[in-house]
Each structure stands twice: as structure tokens, then as C-alpha cells.
């Protein structure tokens, strides 16, 4: 039986969130790691916009939005209940993720790479990003995660971007971000699922033997 094909890039936060959900759903894919500066023709053929992640189902159907890949995987199997909330709704999670992908990502890019955006003031965009992070913090203090006492879709979709923000200037983040937010990020990034999703894989080229994502979990000695 052929597997869906996943085009991915290890450090891309969009691709990370897709891999988290594929792992959570235990959904095996043929793994094609790409270099963004040298994208394979097969990726462009599947999705001319050529961003990662892209998932191509065995029947040829293409999903080229990270959140759609998450939902596609979790609607097949959701053992960690990322779509099942005790408090809040899926619509509320999607709305928060949308704000991450629009406003927060806009400010994050300009904080991280001010030279790539004419007239960008890194400090101003850092402060604007913090307004969103403070809002996340107000949710996290209630029960530990964004929508309750365990991670759900929104946590896993948003955390890769918060991690990117934290890493721009980790000393500044440690001194200025609220403790619950920092603890939330530390808990997620230290989780075995996160670690497995960040497994290193050399770039794919046509003709390579099939490599499957996820790689098997390490077994206890
Ligand atoms: N809306 C897309 C955005 C994906 C995206 O922008 N990915 C970046 C990498 S983090 C990308 O592929 N950029 C194209 C490039 O750098 O050439 C999604 O959610 O999947």
C-alpha cells in the first residue's frame, strides 16, 4: 500500500506543526525532506506555490496548508484528543491559530529579520509580538495549556512560532516573558513527541529509497 508523501523542512514551524499532528495520529508518510533553496521539481509539481509542508495523498489529492494537514491527520485518529476540548471550542482554537499565522507571524518575521523588511523596527515588532504572547500567557495560567490542562491543537500549532520568537534573543525572552508561558514552551519542547518530530533527515532526491516518517520511537533498554 502506498503512503502519503510529506514534503517537509525540519526547522520550518509550519512543517513542524504538521509533523506533530502526523505523529499524534500515528499516520505514516513517505518522508521527503527538502532544502528551501533547492526545492525538488516534484514538490513544485504537486503544489506550484512550493511552500512546505505539502502532503500528497495516495490518490493524488494535495494538501498544502499546514493546518489542513494537522486536521486531516487528527480527523483520522486523535488518541491525544487534540481536537477534543473540555473547555472551549475548535472554532476558538482555529481563531487563535489564525491570529498566530497572521499578526504574530508578521511581527515575528520583522523582529527576527528586520533587514529583510524595509523600515522595520525590530524593537517595535518585538513589543507587538509580546502582546500576543501575553494573551497566550493569560490562557496558560488558567490550567497550564492554551485550552485546558493538556496540550491540544492550538498549543501544537502555535508553539513552534513561540519557540522561534524565544530563540531570537533567549536572554531577553527569559527576562521578559511571563513564567507560565516560558514553562509551557519548555514543557512542550522537552516532550518526546516534539523530539521525535525534530529527527534529522538528509534532503530527499528522486530515486532515493523510501524513508518513512515517523521513524520508530526509541525502545526502552
Ligand atoms: N500557509 C502555509 C505557509 C507555509 C510556509 O510559508 N512555509 C515556508 C517555510 S517555514 C516556506 O515554505 N517558504 C517558502 C520558501 O522559503 O521558499 C502553511 O501553513 O503551510
UniProtKB/TrEMBL annotation:
PROSITE patterns: GST_NTER. It holds the Pfam family GST_C_2. Residues 2-81 form the GST N-terminal domain. InterPro entries: Glutathione-S-Trfase_C_sf, Glutathione_S-Trfase_N, GST_Omega/HSP26, Thioredoxin-like_sf. Keywords: Transferase. Transmembrane segments: none annotated. It comes from the Bacteria. This is Glutathione S-transferase.
Amino acid at each position: 500500500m502506498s503512503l502519503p508523501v510529506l514534503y517537509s523542512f525540519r526547522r520550518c514551524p509550519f512543517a513542524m506543526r504538521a509533523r506533530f499532528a502526523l505523529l499524534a495520529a500515528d499516520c505514516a508518510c513517505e518522508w521527503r525532506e527538502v532544502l528551501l533553496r533547492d526545492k525538488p521539481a516534484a514538490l513544485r509539481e504537486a503544489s506550484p506555490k512550493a511552500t512546505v509542508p505539502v502532503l500528497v495523498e495516495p490518490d493524488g489529492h494535495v494538501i498544502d496548508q499546514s493546518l489542513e494537514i494537522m486536521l486531516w491527520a487528527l480527523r483520522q485518529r486523535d488518541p491525544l484528543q487534540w481536537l477534543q476540548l473540555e473547555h472551549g471550542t475548535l472554532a476558538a482554537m482555529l481563531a487563535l491559530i489564525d491570529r498566530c499565522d497572521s499578526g504574530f507571524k508578521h511581527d515575528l518575521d520583522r523582529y527576527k529579520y528586520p533587514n529583510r523588511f524595509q523600515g522595520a523596527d525590530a524593537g517595535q515588532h518585538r513589543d507587538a509580538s509580546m502582546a500576543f504572547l501575553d494573551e497566550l500567557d493569560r490562557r496558560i495560567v488558567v490550567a497550564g495549556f492554551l485550552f485546558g490542562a493538556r496540550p491540544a491543537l492550538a498549543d501544537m500549532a502555535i508553539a513552534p512560532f513561540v519557540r522561534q520568537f524565544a530563540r531570537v534573543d533567549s536572554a531577553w525572552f527569559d527576562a521578559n516573558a511571563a513564567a507560565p508561558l516560558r514553562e509551557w514552551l519548555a514543557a512542550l519542547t522537552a516532550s518526546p513527541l516534539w523530539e521525535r518530530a525534530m529527527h534529522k533527515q538528509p534532503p530527499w532526491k528522486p530515486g532515493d529509497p523510501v524513508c518513512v516518517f515517523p521513524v520508530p520511537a526509541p525502545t526502552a533498554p
